[in-house]
From TrEMBL:
Its main location: membrane. It is found in: Cell membrane. CDD domains: TM_PBP2. Coiled coil: none annotated. The keyword Transmembrane helix applies. The chain crosses the membrane at residues 25-44, 82-102, 114-132, 228-252. Keywords: Cell membrane, Membrane, Transmembrane, Transmembrane helix, Transport. It is a multi-pass membrane protein. Residues 68-252 form the ABC transmembrane type-1 domain. This is ABC transporter permease. InterPro entries: MetI-like, MetI-like_sf.
Length: 264
């Protein structure tokens, strides 16, 4: 049982925590203020880096005319489809290889060869194979997210305590029971780490995929803004990508805390 701190000590810890929280917010806000000031006095050229206020105005404009909501819907759907497809492939193959030495000898070498390929370098080949529609974009995302999930699932299952499987054998567990009651709970923490890595790769892949032969999505907004020299819209689009990555990562962290609350 953890020691109970006196009331004064708890208050001191809470105050330090608040100070650190405030400091984490002050530094980016100070950077934005310096950026705005530099733009206002002419130190930063608006043709190179528009002021934060102009970028905010561009965002309000995109929100007001509905372009941002349409782009978010299309980009979100692409990431979701790619993540589901890549997740099924990565977790499925990782589970098979983690549970079977024969599968490791036959499946793992081709997977490692594919992993060594830069998946974004396959864009021209994907366009030739699948055209310029939605399919190549979704498949690129799926390819990118599958490998972190595959590696983390494979590694997590191999690190399960063998004594747990021995106990399961003694108790007469079936393969399904061993997988659902031992392998999955033991591998869950590392698989969730792989999911966080995969989400970051998914958004990174989408940034590149949507700027090639796309007529919808956030990448299309950025490309269109480039043609009209709207640097403020380009930066706002990149900020949206970053925020989407942060939000989805936070969602997985909440899932991780709830799924693993028994460990605390």
């Amino acid at each position: 049982m953890a020691p109970v701190l006196p009331a004064g000590a708890r208050t001191s810890v809470a105050r330090r925590h608040r100070r650190w929280t405030i400091a984490r917010w002050v530094s980016p806000l100070a950077l934005l203020a310096l950026w705005q000031l530099g733009s206002a006095i002419g130190l930063i050229s608006q043709d190179v880096l528009p002021a934060p206020s102009l970028i905010a105005e561009a965002g309000v404009e995109l929100i007001g005319n509905g372009e941002l909501s349409d782009a978010l819907r299309v980009s979100g759907l692409r990431v979701t489809e790619g993540l589901l497809l890549g997740g099924v492939i990565g977790v499925g193959l990782g589970s098979v290889v983690g549970l079977s030495r024969w599968a490791e000898a036959t499946v793992d070498p081709p997977m490692q060869m594919l992993r060594a390929l830069p998946h974004l370098g396959l864009i021209p080949l994907f366009i030739l194979w699948f055209g310029i529609g939605e399919l190549p974009k979704v498949l690129l995302v799926a390819l990118g997210v599958s490998f972190p999930l595959y590696l983390n699932t494979f590694s997590a299952i191999r690190q399960v305590d063998p004594k747990l499987f021995e106990t399961a054998d003694v108790l007469g567990f079936s393969f399904r029971q061993r997988f659902s009651h031992i392998a999955i709970p033991s591998a869950a923490p590392q698989v969730l780490v792989g999911l966080r890595q995969s989400l970051a790769i998914a958004w990174l892949t989408l940034i590149v995929a949507e700027q090639i032969n796309a007529d919808k999505g956030i990448g299309f907004l950025i490309n269109n803004a480039r043609d009209f020299l709207r640097i403020d819209v380009i930066i706002f689009g990149l900020i949206v990508y970053a925020l989407l990555g942060i939000v989805t990562d936070a969602v997985v962290r909440v899932m991780e805390r709830r799924a693993l609350r028994y460990r605390s």
